[in-house]
Amino acid sequence: MSKYDRYGIPYQSNICQDCGLIYTSPRFNQKSYLDFYDSQYRKIYTGNHSQSLEKFFQNQQDSGEKIFRYIKENYNSKINSVLEIGCGMGGILYHFKENNCEILGVDFGSKYIEEGKIIIST
């Protein structure tokens, strides 16, 4: 079994001898998750520590436009509301808001959430 995750962070994986489930133990507690996603996740995930918040938001907006267009072109139902878990700054949601959808985004990255609230509310 692995002793490191894909980013090189040490962790212990285990396998259940009865059912074969692979799991990490010990798992993060709530505080660990909050700390990780608030201070480390974006640095690891993007690999680009120098990317400006404006550029990050713009990239999310571009993705949001593509997602919105895909849904409209491939599904006949009207989009009324969108929930995005792990929304970063909410750039994906911004395009949905501009198209009269109710939006709600959640993320542990407080810096990104606060900046996104400012941009989206203007």
How would you describe what is shown here?
- Helices cover 48% and strands 13% of the residues.
- The longest helix is centred in the middle third of the chain and has 22 residues.
- The protein folds into two domains: 27 residues, no CATH class; 69 residues, Rossmann fold (3-Layer(aba) Sandwich), CATH 3.40.50.150.
- The mean pLDDT is 86.
- The protein is built from five helices and four strands; from the N terminus they run ββαααβαβα.
- The chain is α+β, with helices and mostly antiparallel strands and 122 residues long.
- A hairpin with a 6-residue loop joins strand 1 and strand 2.
- The strands form two sheets. It has a two-stranded antiparallel sheet.
Descriptive terms for the model:
2 domains; two-stranded antiparallel sheet; 4 strands; 122 residues; alpha+beta
Q: Return the domain count.
A: 2
The rough form would be described as globular
Residues in β-strands, percent: 5-15%
CATH architecture of the largest domain: 3-Layer(aba) Sandwich
The number of strands is: 4
Q: What is the H/E order? A: EEHHHEHEH
From the N-terminal CA to the C-terminal CA, the straight-line distance is 49 Å
Mean pLDDT, nearest integer? Answer: 86
CATH class of the largest domain: Alpha Beta
Concise structural overview:
By secondary structure, the chain is of the alpha+beta class. It has helices at 30-39, 41-46, 53-74, 91-98, 110-121, and strands at residues 13-15, 22-24, 81-85, 102-106.
Write the layout of secondary structure elements.
Elements: E1 13-15, E2 22-24, H1 30-39, H2 41-46, H3 53-74, E3 81-85, H4 91-98, E4 102-106, H5 110-121
Parallel strand pairs: 3-4
Antiparallel strand pairs: 1-2
Helix pairs in contact: 3-4
